[in-house]
Amino acid sequence: xxxxxxxxxxxxxxxxxxxxxxxxxxxxxxxxxxxxxxxxxxxxxxxxxxxxxxxxxxxxxxxxxxxxxxxxxxxxxxxxxxxxxxxxxxxxxxxxxxxxxxxxxxxxx
Length: 109
Known about the structure:
By secondary structure, the chain is mainly α.
């Protein structure tokens, strides 16, 4: 055979059939590579969305916490219970002394 002559079609077909497994392997690698890129993008979007939700929940928590702290101040509590007829004590509460024996009685025998 001379160098400028074409090879018969039969030889190139054999070469393709001989390497078909390798071509299929390369095609599957390309599919996995594309899938991995899409999956990474999806995970990145999910992480960003979760981060935004976390920040919003942190802001809401801080707002509610400051509101609770404000409403639990003594002056605010007095103002809130005033419509119910409750008033703030001006004198300390009176406690009656209890004998020590009563406190030490056992319930279970």
